[in-house]
Amino acid sequence: SAKLRILGIETSCDETAAAVVSRFEDGTGRIEADVVLSQLDEHSAYGGVVPEIAARAHVEALDSLIEEALVRSGTTLDEIDAIAATAGPGLIGGLIVGLMTGKAIAHATGKPLYAVNHLEGHALTARLTDGLSFPYLMLLVSGGHTQLVLVRGVGDYERWGTTIDDALGEAFDKTAKLLGLPYPGGPAVEKAAASGDAKRFNFPRPLVGEARLDFSFSGLKTAVRQAAEGIAPVTDQDISDICASFQRAISRTLDDRIGRGLQRFLAEFPDREGMPALVVAGGVAANQELRRTLQSLCDRHGFRFVAPPHHLCTDNAVMIAWAGLERMGTGLPSDTLDVQPRSRWP
Ligand code: KG4
Ligand code: ZN
């Protein structure tokens, strides 16, 4: 069947990415090429993403990554129907690089440009990978975001909960840092937790029991620091016990917060056909304990738990291309060439 093909560009944080994705008339899609260059090595010495380094690295890598995506997909720019580039939220230097490149290609080829919200990319990925139909719930847990979002349709989202302080990935990263574990902290904390006693420390579970669906993780980080400071010298076993207890507190917190979200969804859509779904996205979705927690939560509430493949949960350009395709397929207008990047864009 006839299809649309989009070039996607993602540069909002520390991954430079380009992709070519097709969408068919029946609404299904196909990844033609998916290229991601992680800048992890360039930032790890600093224990976090350095915006200036990130922006420069995007400038250096992006053109050849786009070329590579086109070659791998066997597509020329002439055969592309549109360009989709992340316009926000994120680090402004990187956003400028990606969006300006998208504008330049759109201008040179005369093809439409879609300035995509990065969060919309995360939100719609499960429709490409799992063919989900609206509405569904999405939990985004990354280094920069912790949000529970109702996805009602293309361009139709409602944020039900967000963090009032640290993002969940940030809590993992900060916890790792104060325990002397390497960056990025998430994988290191998970690894250490595997041999730890999760019941040794009773860390706080912020906002548990509250009706609103927000999250808070900074108190947890403080409790971890106090626990570590209370032991001298700190052994590897102590670190493992702290990490295991930390993950347990997070599991309990999510179980309560997301559980309320699932109930609210059932109350708002009592007549929805088929099984309701919870989608997880973001780098923290790699965490096995988090997945087990969400899986059992979904089982208990009669939800389908959807976790797209890891490389599509973390930052990538496929999701940006796909969001552009969904906008195009729904008849939403493309953006004019004076569209501006936005570091903040809820
Ligand atoms: O989505 P992502 O790759 O990048 C952005 O934040 O945009 O997410 C990175 C975050 C980091 O905070 C990292 O520590 C966390 O995801 N992370 C994990 C795990 N793997 C990555 N957190 C917990 N457990 C993991 N296995
Ligand atoms: Zn992201």
TrEMBL record:
EC number(s) on file: 2.3.1.234
Key words, A-Z: Acyltransferase, Cytoplasm, Iron, Metal-binding, Transferase, tRNA processing
Cofactor(s), by name: Fe(2+)
Pfam families per the UniProt record, alphabetical: TsaD
GO molecular function: iron ion binding; tRNA N(6)-L-threonylcarbamoyladenine synthase activity
Principal subcellular localization: cytoplasm
Domain spans labelled Gcp-like: 31-322
GO biological process terms on file: tRNA threonylcarbamoyladenosine modification
Cofactor binding note from Swiss-Prot or TrEMBL: Binds 1 Fe(2+) ion per subunit.
Binding, Fe cation: H118, H122, D315
Subcellular location: Cytoplasm
Uppermost EC category: transferase
Keyword Metal-binding: yes
CDD domains per the UniProt record, alphabetical: ASKHA_NBD_TsaD_bac (cd24133)
Its job: Required for the formation of a threonylcarbamoyl group on adenosine at position 37 (t(6)A37) in tRNAs that read codons beginning with adenine. Is involved in the transfer of the threonylcarbamoyl moiety of threonylcarbamoyl-AMP (TC-AMP) to the N6 group of A37, together with TsaE and TsaB. TsaD likely plays a direct catalytic role in this reaction.
Family of the protein in this entry: Belongs to the KAE1 / TsaD family.
Official protein name in the record: tRNA N6-adenosine threonylcarbamoyltransferase
Organism, as annotated: Rhizobium terricola
